[in-house]
Design goal:
By secondary structure, this protein is of the alpha/beta class. It is 49% helix and 9% strand. A hairpin with an 8-residue loop joins strand 6 and strand 7. Helix 2 crosses helix 3, helix 3 crosses helix 4 and helix 19 packs across helix 21. The longest helix is centred in the N-terminal third of the chain and has 17 residues.
Length: 556
């Protein structure tokens, strides 16, 4: 603690302090309280897991001590779990770190923390999952996290805890099918072992028949303590009224209070995080620093018109970000990080107008092609596709330094075409995290030996056009070569559908080579290819690639 940092001074009322002392084992003496804060900080900074403390101020660390009743070992474990989740669950925390992406979730009133206090003085959080059409589960989780963090700014809520109302009236099949065991485990882990809250009760109301399916998945991950605090009320609100005074509940819960202030809560949350996120004061939001090797930078400068000077590079990033913010389509920037914006500049050789068009097209696709991006946003839905090895990425292999993408459409039995598109998108996005791939580009191998008539019938002109648009005008990738191998008879019909939507540049890079693998070896090192393609490399590690994508630290 440096000399210019102000230490925590307790301003709790006598009644709240007495409760904290009696129930949370909080020291009444501030010197002892500060000693506990210093101890948890030392314990965290001495971790061997590579975690970086997000905030070092006393009030932040104090939350974790209170949440675990000043038990140092349990408090430290909670603090570490909190940071592990923030580092690993990118599908949630990319949105937490860019809350403007959740405006629609708050506008729909899917989460609200402004109802007031329960009878035990705990803060009330109302969740209405599914109220926004097409909402992803990770959007809801991110909004819950932001709302709870906002409530925890008030010390009284750290001491009295939080009461949850989950109104399941809007629960629908599209939302429920996202709740696989993996996501259920992570969500319950976030609530039970990461967020520094005292969860006083969870009250489920208006649950439809679908809720039984969701609960069957979630229930096994609930701790016994959580189960004891979990009550299903249905549409019988008297039990809810025993916990929350009906005078503060709106009339749709048989209360006499005011309507839910959706707009007010949205503004409270977004304003709370405005300084952290927009200005980068905390949350470890840093500007891009070029760490490219000298040869790679030289290639980027020569072929992509990338500025050598980082100040000029950052100016180009800022200009593109600002131009996007003025778009008339109402799109929210999917990720505001410099590294994300930079991909589009490189893909369009730092031509601002062309990079902006690609960035807008990218967001147009993400917002309109729901059949693909509901799966992109919830990649566990693609587990069968990944198990079958329909998509796979390799960081190297092209003789020109390019990375390799291998697609095997139809390898999963009864595969849905949009599943394949989603798997391709996830794979390319993951590969784009490697800056070398952004600069050297991508070599594509499409093995069509598994293509059948049922799959081909799914690719009408509309689907073909959207797919080619995604590849040519949306994904910020330099496709250097596309090699089609093992194409069946049905391919001739399919190619006639796809060809009209191919740009001339794409056509020039397309090679139809059948099973003449020596032609494939002209562009791909056979030492990187498995024996199925007359290569000497290892077999395709489908399980490893699945783990890479489902546990991926990338912007989805």
């Amino acid at each position: 603690m440096t000399s210019n940092e102000t230490r925590y001074v307790c301003n709790l009322s006598p009644a709240i302090l007495a409760k904290a002392v009696a129930e949370l084992n909080e020291p009444e003496d501030n010197t002892k309280r500060l000693a506990a804060i210093d101890e948890i900080k030392r314990g965290f900074l001495g971790n061997t897991e590579g975690l970086t403390l997000m905030k070092e101020d006393d009030i932040f660390l104090l939350r974790f001590l209170r949440a675990r009743k000043f038990d140092m070992a349990r408090s430290l474990a909670l603090l570490k779990n909190y940071h592990k989740q923030r580092s690993s669950w990118k599908e949630v925390f990319d949105k937490v770190n860019n809350p403007s992406r959740l405006v629609k979730v708050f506008d729909a009133g899917c989460i609200c923390g402004s109802l007031g206090k329960a009878k035990d003085s705990s803060a009330i959080v109302l969740g209405r999952p599914g109220k926004l059409s097409g909402m992803s589960l990770t959007d809801f989780v991110a909004a819950v996290f932001l709302s709870v963090e906002t409530l925890l700014d008030i010390e009284e809520n750290q001491v009295y805890g939080i009461t949850v109302i989950q109104d399941m009236y809007y629960l629908n099949f599209g939302f429920v099918r996202q709740i696989g065991p993996s996501l259920a485990s992570r969500f319950l882990g976030l609530l039970q072992d990461c967020l520094p809250i005292r969860l006083k009760s969870v009250n489920v109301v208006n649950e439809p028949m679908l809720f039984d399916i969701a609960f069957a998945i979630i229930g096994p991950f609930m701790k016994e303590k959580t189960k004891k605090r979990f009550t299903i009320h249905g549409q019988e609100y008297s039990g809810l009224h025993s916990i929350i005074d009906p005078q503060i509940l709106p009339d749709n819960y048989n209360g006499s209070g005011n309507a839910i202030d959706v707009e007010g809560w949205k503004n409270t949350v977004l304003e709370r995080f405005k300084h952290d996120i927009t200005l980068g004061a905390t949350m470890s939001v840093k500007r891009y620093e070029c760490t490219l090797s000298a040869p790679l930078l030289a290639k980027a400068m020569e072929e992509l018109n990338e500025p050598e000077d980082n100040t000029e590079r950052l100016a180009a990033i800022d200009k593109l970000r600002e131009s996007f913010s003025k778009n008339q389509k109402g799109y929210q920037l999917h990720c505001s990080d410099d590294a994300f914006i930079l991909r589009f500049l490189r893909a369009r050789k730092f031509d601002h107008d062309r990079a902006l068009a690609m960035l807008l097209n990218y967001h147009k696709q993400r917002n309109s092609w729901s059949e693909v991006f509901e799966k992109v946003n919830n990649p566990t839905l693609l587990t069968p596709l990944l198990d079958a090895g329909c998509v796979f990425g390799m960081p190297s292999g092209g003789k020109d330094g390019t990375s390799l993408f291998m697609g095997r459409p139809g390898k999963q039995k009864d595969m849905i075409f949009t599943d394949f598109v989603a798997g391709l998108f996830l794979t390319v996005e993951k590969m784009l995290e490697n800056e070398e791939m952004q600069i050297h580009g991508l070599t594509v191998i499409e093995d069509l030996s598994y293509m059948d008539l049922d799959l081909a019938k799914q690719m009408g002109p509309a689907s073909a056009k959207r797919f080619l648009n995604l590849l040519q005008d949306c994904l910020p990738v330099r496709v250097k070569c596309v090699s089609l191998v093992n194409e069946p008879t049905v391919f001739d019909v399919l190619f006639k559908i796809v060809q009209p939507f191919m740009k001339e540049k794409t056509r020039k890079r397309l090679r139809v080579i059948g099973n003449s693998y020596e032609k494939l070896h002209e562009v791909v090192d056979p030492a990187k290819l498995p024996a199925a393609y007359n290569g000497t490399g290892p077999e395709v590690d489908t399980e490893g690639w699945k783990r890479t994508l489902l546990g991926r630290g990338t912007n989805i």
